[in-house]
Amino acid sequence: MRIATYNVEWFANLFDQDDKLHDDGGWSGRWNVTRAQQTAALGTVFRALDADAIMVIEAPDAGPNHDAVAALEHFAERFGLRARRAVMGFANNTQQEIALLFDPDMMTAVHDPQGEPSGAKGAPGAPRFDGSLLIDLDIDATEDQVVFSKPPIELAIETRSGFSFRMIGAHLKSKAPHGARDDKHAMQISIANRRKQLAQAIWLRARIDSHVADKTPIMLLGDLNDGPGLDAFENLFGRSSVEIILGADGDHPLYDPHAARALGQRLGATPTTSRFWIRQEKRFLQALLDYIMVCLGIRDRAPQWRIWHPLDDPACWGDSALREALVAASDHFPVTLDIDV
After folding, report:
1. What one-character DSSP code corresponds to residue 123?
2. Could you give the dihedral angle defined by the CA atoms of residues 90, 91, 97 and 102, in that order, rounded to the nearest 10 degrees?
3. Which of 107, 134, 158, 311 is deepest in the core (most CB within 10 A)?
4. Which class is domain 2-338?
5. Is the distance from CB of 169 to CB of 57 less than 8 angstroms?
6. How many CB atoms lie within 10 A of CB 227?
7. Can you tell me the distance from the alpha carbon of 334 to that of 54, in angstroms, rounded to the nearest whole number?
8. Residues 170, 197: contact at Cβ < 8 Å?
9. What is the rounded distance in angstroms from the CA atom of residue 148 to the CA atom of residue 98?
10. Which H/E stretch holds residue 196?
């Protein structure tokens, strides 16, 4: 079975008011890429993946005027994908949902949020992800309220063979210092935003601990927008959100080989899953942002990870159509996990 995570940049822009693909010459959210070009590129990538399940980060919009599940299923139908059913969790207001496309012949996938609703006042520990967490962010003996701008999706999965496990899809992001009056104010805002992201990681880790303690197999997939050596705040806080979620110092660590490699060497080449154009520097920046982390019980099944990087993966590089599609489709590249479940 192949399980994937894929951040699709501004997927929502490719769909009209009826959640059908525009598939025309209008501009997509990607620079100098039309909607038809991005749609075709995504079709090429998704068909090449041929995955049983894909955690779609930045999935199409959901809300009063849009249906993310319908949009994804229309997309799957357009390209004849096996992963033709969609399920999503709590909607957000960013036009970047988190949803799972899956093959109903190979598995069932049900949104099954855990934790108690926190109410307006919030709650400590691991409340439901659409609520708020009470946690002291700045060691002032006062609890702050933390929320997810994009609540993680929690899924109960059962494969055709009868293997049951939990899947969490997450998209963590430390907001830019919008509205800063000067450099000092920008730094204050950035530090506060990073504290919130680390608190979200602690919240996720608490949920993971509860599942592993119950001997429930679990994997976490998605874009964590953080990692070893990524920015100047690492030394300030000591740990990244990636390290918190992995829980390497605890009793129930998760594992991702790309994260392990990056954490194991502060200098030298590390795996990357994304490629961004830095306009002011006129160059590309590559970073490791996307992960599939698994518990020991899943790791024991000899999983095989792969980053579908068009410049680093020989098979992707050798297929010119796939290589060009991966570049046009998104600023992130898919990560897959092949495993016998």
Report:
1. B
2. 50
3. 107
4. alpha beta
5. yes
6. 23
7. 9
8. no
9. 12
10. helix 183-213
In order along its 341 residues, the chain shows pLDDT tens digits of: 999 999 999 999 999 999 999 999 999 999 999 999 999 999 999 999 999 999 999 999 998 999 999 999 999 999 999 999 999 999 999 999 999 999 999 999 999 999 999 988 999 999 999 999 999 887 666 888 999 999 999 999 999 999 999 999 999 976 554 555 766 665 666 677 888 999 999 999 999 999 999 999 999 999 998 755 444 545 445 588 999 999 988 778 999 999 999 988 766 678 999 999 888 899 999 999 999 999 999 999 999 999 999 999 999 999 999 999 999 999 999 999 999 99
DSSP assignment letter at 80: T
Q: Delimit the domains of the chain by residue range.
A: 2-338
Residue 207: CB partners within 8 Å, gap ≥ 6? 114, 115, 126, 129, 154, 168
Q: What are phi and psi of 34, to 5 degrees?
A: -75, 165
What count of Cα atoms within 13 Å lies in the side-chain half-sphere of residue 23? 11
Which is it for strands 164-171 and 218-223: parallel, antiparallel or unpaired? Answer: parallel
Both structure tokens of 173: 């992001």
**Which among 260, 267, 265 is positioned nearest to 305, based on CA atoms?**
260
The closest of 293, 267, 303, 328 to 38, measured between CA atoms, is: 328
Report how far apart, in Å, the C-alpha atoms of 39 and of each of 166, 200, 252 are: 31, 33, 40
Maximum CA extent, the chain: 58
Structure tokens at 198: 């680390």
Give the C-alpha separation, 291 to 305, whole Å: 10
pTM of the model: 0.93
Q: State the number of CA atoms in the 13 A half-sphere of 197 facing the CB.
A: 26
Helix (H) or strand (E) holding 296: helix 296-299
